[in-house]
């Protein structure tokens, strides 16, 4: 066990609970579309609609949730979200047993659990910096993202196995169990957050629209937040567009059985572990900004191998393409989260997460609908060519921004950062990136 996990009991509990939750989410990401395809015999567009429903709450409630998270303690929100998700996922097999499970019920579960995920993820992102000292945050982020990738691998493989042995519907019981573990781990954390008034330096809470507007201005007015948010929105649009077609493509086009789909997705996801393991070393050698370009442009270009997938040895093309995408996404997320935690004032972190996620995650349902529509109109393989090409193309947002001209992201936000259009001479050689 590593140093931080060994010496920090509360982080260890948070890590265990989050890893369990990511395992369950990975099971759901495979099991839900398999339920739609294999059990409900849903159309390609309906499968895309199901994927969209899980992310739609970011557009509907993401911004007010960010204000809410900054006004109250974060841990109770995480507990309530985990409890709600536990109940909803446990209900799916019950509905199926009594013949009440249809596409409408499955969409409702996806929508409601997606809403719980908005609250949990926003609160969790703002809670972690209150739990760890600044010196431990880089290691903590790497541990959490690395274990999340490992949990995704095991979860996807398990989902395929469960679908083959017990049916895709019963596979969702595994997700309910992981939310129970997450709930128990969160209850065991002893750390108590400061009161919101203390966290905000005693400032009185303003109206909801005013605080939402403050978070939006923070993202829109700062060149670094603006660039990363715009990139995240475009990248997620392309990622979800092709991922929403993955189950349909592998089952109907390539001809794989349900159990093999889970195993293939799990093998491809090992890229996330590699990305999490190497990102700190890469950033130390190249600089955080240059490492971001490598992880978000270089590695995800392998996505163009995915549409070439065929049966037999041809499935290795899917593994190689998805491996590169997974490594790039996880490594880039670690770099982005670490930058946000250092650069953003703590009292605005919840609004920053929600405002950027409003666009970043808000394009996910649009991407799912786009993938489903393209697949229905042009055929699944042709749609994959279009959507996978969008993954590396999205990174041109970074290439055409100040990220290309610096070695490292800045460590602290200055008064003129919100008006910056590019780096100064000191930032170009990385000298100003360290405090």
From TrEMBL:
**What is the protein name given in its UniProt record?**
MFS transporter
UniProt superkingdom: Bacteria
Region span, Disordered? 410-435
Q: Which InterPro entries match?
A: MFS (IPR011701), MFS_trans_sf (IPR036259)
Give me the stretches of Basic and acidic residues compositional bias: 425-435
Instruction: Give the organism, scientific name.
Output: Streptomyces siderophoricus
Per its UniProt record, what Gene3D superfamilies does this chain match?
A: MFS general substrate transporter like domains (1.20.1250.20)
Keywords assigned: Cell membrane, Membrane, Transmembrane, Transmembrane helix
Q: Where in the cell is it found?
A: Cell membrane
Coiled-coil annotation reads none
> Which CDD domains would you find in this protein's record?
MFS_MefA_like
Q: How does it sit in the membrane?
A: Multi-pass membrane protein
Segments passing through the bilayer? 42-65, 77-96, 103-124, 168-189, 227-250, 256-279, 291-310, 316-337, 358-378, 384-403
């Amino acid at each position: 066990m590593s140093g931080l996990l060994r010496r920090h009991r509360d982080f260890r509990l948070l890590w265990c609970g989050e890893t369990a939750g990511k395992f369950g989410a990975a099971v759901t990401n495979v099991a839900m579309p398999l339920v739609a395809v294999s059990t409900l015999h849903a159309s390609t567009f309906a499968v895309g609609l199901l994927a969209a429903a899980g992310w739609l709450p970011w557009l509907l409630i993401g911004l007010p949730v960010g204000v809410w998270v900054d006004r109250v303690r974060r841990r109770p929100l995480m507990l309530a979200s985990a409890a709600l998700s536990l109940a909803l996922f446990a209900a799916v097999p019950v509905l199926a047993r009594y013949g009440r499970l249809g596409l409408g019920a499955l969409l409702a579960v996806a929508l409601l659990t997606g809403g719980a995920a908005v609250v949990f993820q926003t609160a969790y992102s703002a809670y972690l910096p209150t739990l760890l000292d600044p010196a431990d945050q880089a290691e903590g982020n790497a541990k959490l993202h690395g274990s999340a990738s490992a949990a995704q691998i095991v979860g996807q493989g398990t989902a395929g196995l469960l679908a083959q042995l017990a049916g895709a519907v019963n596979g969702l019981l595994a997700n309910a169990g992981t939310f129970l573990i997450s709930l128990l781990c969160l209850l065991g954390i002893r750390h108590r957050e400061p009161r919101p008034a203390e966290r905000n330096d005693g400032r009185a809470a303003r109206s909801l629209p005013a605080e939402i507007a403050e978070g939006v201005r923070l993202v829109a007015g700062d060149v670094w937040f603006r660039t990363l948010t715009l990139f995240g929105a475009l990248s997620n649009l392309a990622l979800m567009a092709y991922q929403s077609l993955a189950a349909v493509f592998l089952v109907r086009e390539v001809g794989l059985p349900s159990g093999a789909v889970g195993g293939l997705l799990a093998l491809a996801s090992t890229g996330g572990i590699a990305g999490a393991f190497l990102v700190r070393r890469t950033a130390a050698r190249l600089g955080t900004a240059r490492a971001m370009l490598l992880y978000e442009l270089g590695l995800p270009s392998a996505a163009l191998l995915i549409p070439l997938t065929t049966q037999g040895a041809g499935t290795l093309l899917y593994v190689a393409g998805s491996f590169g995408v997974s490594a790039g996404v996880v490594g880039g997320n670690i770099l982005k989260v670490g930058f946000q935690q250092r650069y953003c004032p703590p009292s605005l972190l919840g609004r920053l997460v929600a405002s950027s996620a409003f666009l970043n995650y808000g394009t996910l349902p649009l991407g799912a609908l786009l993938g489903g529509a393209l697949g229905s109109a042009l055929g699944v393989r042709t749609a994959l060519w279009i959507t996978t090409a969008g993954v590396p193309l999205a990174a041109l947002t970074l290439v055409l921004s100040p990220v290309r001209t610096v070695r490292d992201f800045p460590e602290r936000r200055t008064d003129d950062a919100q008006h910056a259009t590019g780096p100064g001479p000191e930032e170009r050689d990385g000298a100003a990136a360290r405090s």
